[in-house]
TrEMBL record, chain A:
Residues 147-197 form the DNA replication complex GINS protein PSF1 C-terminal domain. It holds the Pfam family PSF1_C. One of its GO terms (biological process) is DNA strand elongation involved in mitotic DNA replication. It is found in: Nucleus. It comes from the Eukaryota. InterPro entries: GINS_A (IPR021151), GINS_bundle-like_dom_sf (IPR036224), GINS_Psf1 (IPR005339), PSF1_C (IPR056783). The keyword Metal-binding does not apply. This is DNA replication complex GINS protein PSF1. GO terms for cellular component: GINS complex. Belongs to the GINS1/PSF1 family. Required for correct functioning of the GINS complex, a complex that plays an essential role in the initiation of DNA replication, and progression of DNA replication forks. GINS complex seems to bind preferentially to single-stranded DNA. Keywords: DNA replication, Nucleus. Its main location: nucleus.
From TrEMBL, chain B:
Residues 170-223 form the DNA replication complex GINS protein SLD5 C-terminal domain. GO terms for cellular component: GINS complex. Belongs to the GINS4/SLD5 family. It is found in: Nucleus. It comes from Ceutorhynchus assimilis. Residues 83-153 form the GINS subunit domain. This is DNA replication complex GINS protein SLD5. It comes from the Eukaryota. One of its GO terms (biological process) is double-strand break repair via break-induced replication. SUPFAM superfamilies: GINS helical bundle-like, PriA/YqbF domain.
Length: 198, 223
């Protein structure tokens, strides 16, 4: 059946909503070649169906075939675009979650083109943030409405020494607990160094 | 809150917080107004389906104030009782500004093609742009990257790309909750030509399309 493979692409994506499945290069290639083949076929059919003045002859035997072919091509293209577009959207959300450096296990799931897009997106985002106000504003901070000034966090890795903005140096050891200003640890939480204890 | 008339322009003269000897009362009042405008802009942006005209001046004034307050707090003794209060307020304001800008970015990304089209239209009609300069730059870069990505994905068969199909438009017919800031007469409620009047402070649930102009002119605000 036409467009079945394209539909599988979409299904695969919708199964893992907030996760990024590996880029399915093989299936994308198959869909592409189906589109190409349909496209060529449509052209041949179109030449048969069209009469001398170039307008489609509705009574031609080939006419329904042509209609089906065109619809299938359109559907394939749409699915293909949706697949790529929605992957970029997920990737975009991840940029906000993880910052400009993605975890290695996500990186391996990207196609080279997506990696390229991600770095471009990151840099235009960084440029934008730098241009706000006098000396830039990091929109990656203050993601949630502030509830309390200080929060309790647990350190998940042996990080070593960390300097707070007021100059105090604290030692972050694995499994140590700290009671710190929220603004100081937000970035470390996104990086996965701290865990917020609720 | 409703009796107060929102100042149309930003009261710059009252915002003289940069001077070292500053009067707490005056400063707090004017800062309060700025925050009020910002909060309203934030709510509007949050609930309106389309992007609204930017509030660049307000954002910049508020950012300046936050920076100033930040410095002041640093000078306070860490055991000072006031410090925690100031710090809390600063964090709230920071959230307000960043959240506002983030929501705008999200809209810009989702509707990039549509927004850029509209902005081009505004340039030809000599209207004020909705995006600020840096937002516009970001939108263009984003758009270019997206196009490039699609083009390379579809490069095997360039003839099948249909530009129109790629445009994502906001749903202007979505329903919003709003509150009138002054008496307004003759709002169209739906297609059946039902008309209603709003008195100051009254609230209504209505289709965004019918009130988009009022939101932009600041006569109502969304909740």
């Amino acid at each position: 059946m036409y467009a079945e493979k394209a539909c599988n692409l979409i299904k695969e994506l919708s199964r893992c909503e907030e996760n990024l499945p590996p880029y399915n290069n093989d299936l994308v290639k198959e869909v592409c070649s189906e589109i190409k083949q349909l496209h060529d076929q449509n052209r041949i059919d179109g030449a048969i169906v069209a009469n001398e003045s170039g307008i489609a002859n509705h009574n031609s035997v080939q006419y329904p075939t042509l209609r089906v072919g065109v619809a299938a091509t359109k559907r394939n293209v749409r699915c293909l675009l949706a697949y790529h577009y929605n992957r970029l959207r997920t990737l975009r959300t991840m940029r906000w979650e993880f910052g400009s450096v993605l975890p290695a296990e996500i990186k391996t799931n990207l196609s080279p083109l997506e990696t390229e897009w991600f770095s471009k997106y990151s840099s235009s985002l960084a440029n934008y943030m730098m241009s706000i106000g006098e000396d830039g504003l990091n929109l990656g901070l203050n993601l949630r409405p502030p509830k309390a000034l200080y929060i309790e966090v647990r350190c998940l890795v042996d990080y070593g020494k960390y300097e707070l903005s007021d100059g105090t140096v604290i030692l972050l050891k694995k499994d140590s607990r700290h009671y710190l200003p929220r603004s100081e640890c937000e970035e470390l939480i996104t990086q996965g160094i701290f865990q917020h204890i609720v | 809150m409703d009796e107060e008339n929102e100042p149309e322009s930003i009261p710059n003269e009252n915002l003289d917080l940069e001077s070292d000897e500053y009067d707490d009362d005056v400063a707090e009042l004017s800062l309060e107004q700025v925050i009020e405008i910002m909060e309203e802009a934030w709510l509007n942006e949050k609930f309106a389906p389309e992007i609204l005209p930017n509030k660049r001046e307000i954002v910049e004034i508020l950012l300046g104030q936050i920076g100033h307050m930040d410095q002041k707090v640093q000078h306070l003794d860490s055991l000072d009782f006031k410090r925690a209060f100031y710090q809390k307020e600063i964090n709230r304001l920071k959230f307000l500004v960043t959240s506002y800008l983030r929501m705008r970015l999200e809209k810009i990304e989702t509707f990039s093609k549509h927004i850029l089209q509209q902005e081009r239209l505004r340039v030809t009609n000599n209207e004020n742009l909705y995006l600020s300069q840096n937002e516009l730059e970001f939108a263009q870069e984003y758009e270019e990257n997206l196009n490039q990505h699609f083009e390379s994905v579809m490069s095997f068969c360039p003839t099948v790309m249909n530009e129109e199909a790629l445009i994502v438009k906001p749903n202007m017919r979505s329903i919003v909750f709003l509150k009138a800031k002054k008496d307004i007469e003759g709002i169209l409620v739906d297609e059946s030509n039902d008309i209603t009047d709003l008195s100051t402070g009254s609230r209504i649930l209505i289709c965004y399309n019918n009130v988009a102009n009022l939101v932009k002119s600041g006569d109502v605000h969304l909740l």
